[in-house]
């Protein structure tokens, strides 16, 4: 078997019947990638609605997350966010096909970049750049579109499904300057010091790592402190990054905000709070595009009851 994080993906290693569902789904994505963009988006929305029905446990997680993060919204408003969130998850799957099989000149027609001067200023100053983002449904297409503008290094977390893990790694490695395991800090720092912009999304519950409970959406949330150490070790600026789907369905806007000032500060809690605030800004602007399916608040402060059953 090929190693899960090996670039050398070999189809012959995954021909047993247990992998046939993967190949069927991959064939489906390949066919969809041949359709016009607006039809692809419609297929994605339909796929997302089906996922919402087929994944009741994830749907319950979305309900819990939205009730905790938006207590002032009505039930109807939260249901609308939930429905659109699942549609966007489906679109995100279809966008992977675009990332993998669309030619670059076709992708470039869909992208508009706002704030590129913020990144260029950091690089011209001789510093590395960390693109701070969250787990939004547009994250995959956002990274691929960014690469149309300049090289990118991506941090990678090993997935649970071996074939899916290996194939996604293989595809990302085709386009990224480097795809680095999140556990390989030295290699990540080397890339940042070479001034390769580095994609970084810390907004998941990594309970086995060093965490502080920093506020996110009004909730004390276990937040890793690795970002501060990474920025300090690589002499890097942390720039919030968000890939927006245009409301009119005509493409995407990549937002690159100015770097966080005086970061890192030397205070882990303060730095984690500022990272969460940067991600929260876009969650509040585009709540239906955040991946609420994650159990983001699984780890609770001592003495607090769990959020999820």
Structure notes:
The protein is of the alpha/beta class and 309 residues long. The chain has one domain: Glycerol-3-phosphate (1)-acyltransferase (3-Layer(aba) Sandwich), CATH 3.40.1130. 47% of the residues lie in helices and 15% in strands. The chain has a seven-stranded mixed sheet with strand order 1-9-8-2-5-3-4, sandwiched between helices. A two-stranded antiparallel sheet has the order 6-7. A hairpin with a 2-residue loop joins β6 and β7. α3 crosses α4. The longest helix has 27 residues. The protein starts with 19 loop residues before the first helix and ends in a 24-residue tail after the last helix. The N terminus is likely disordered.
Number of helices: 11
Unreliable stretches: 1-6
How do the helices and strands follow one another from N- to C-terminus? HHHHHEHEHEHEHEEEHEEH
Shape from CA axes? globular
Q: Residue share in helices?
A: 40-55%
Radius of gyration of CA atoms, rounded to a whole number? 19 Å
- SS strand fraction: 15-25%
- Count of DSSP E strands? 9
Which architecture name does CATH use?
A: 3-Layer(aba) Sandwich
- Give the CATH level 1 class: Alpha Beta
The overall pLDDT, averaged over residues, is: 94
- What is the number of independent domains? 1
- Structural class from helices and strands? alpha/beta
End-to-end separation: 37 Å
Lay out the secondary structure.
Layout: H1 20-32, H2 37-54, H3 56-69, H4 75-101, H5 104-108, E1 111-114, H6 116-124, E2 128-132, H7 139-147, E3 153-156, H8 162-175, E4 178-181, H9 185-193, E5 198-200, E6 211-216, E7 219-224, H10 226-234, E8 236-245, E9 252-256, H11 268-285
Parallel strand pairs: 1-9, 2-5, 2-8, 3-4, 3-5
Antiparallel strand pairs: 6-7, 8-9
């Amino acid at each position: 078997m090929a190693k899960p994080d090996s670039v050398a993906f070999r189809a012959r290693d995954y021909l047993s019947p247990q992998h046939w569902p993967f190949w069927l789904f991959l064939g489906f994505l390949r066919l969809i990638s041949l359709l016009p963009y607006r039809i692809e988006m419609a297929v994605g929305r339909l796929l997302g609605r089906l996922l919402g029905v087929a994944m009741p446990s994830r749907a319950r997680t979305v309900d819990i997350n939205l009730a905790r993060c938006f207590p002032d919204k009505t039930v109807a408003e939260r249901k609308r966010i939930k429905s659109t969130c699942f549609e966007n998850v489906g679109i995100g799957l279809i966008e992977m096909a675009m990332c993998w099989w669309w030619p670059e000149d076709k992708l470039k027609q869909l992208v508009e970049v706002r704030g590129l001067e913020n990144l260029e200023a950091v690089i011209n100053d001789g510093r590395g750049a960390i693109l701070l983002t969250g787990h939004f449904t547009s994250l995959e297409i956002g990274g691929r579109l960014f690469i149309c503008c300049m090289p990118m290094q991506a941090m990678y977390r090993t997935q649970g499904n071996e074939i899916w893990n290996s194939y996604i790694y293989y595809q990302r490695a085709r386009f990224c300057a480097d795809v680095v395991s999140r556990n390989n800090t030295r290699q990540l720092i080397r890339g940042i010091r070479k001034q390769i912009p580095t994609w970084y999304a810390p907004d998941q519950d990594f309970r086995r790592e060093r965490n502080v409970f920093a506020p996110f959406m009004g909730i004390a949330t276990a937040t890793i402190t690795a970002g501060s150490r990474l920025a300090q070790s690589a002499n890097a600026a942390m720039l919030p990054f968000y890939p927006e789907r245009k409301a009119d369905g005509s493409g995407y806007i990549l937002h690159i905000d100015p770097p966080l000032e005086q970061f890192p500060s030397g205070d882990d809690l303060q730095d984690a709070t500022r990272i969460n605030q940067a991600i929260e800004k876009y969650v509040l602007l585009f709540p239906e595009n955040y991946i609420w399916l994650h159990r983001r608040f699984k780890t609770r402060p001592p003495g607090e009851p769990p959020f999820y059953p």
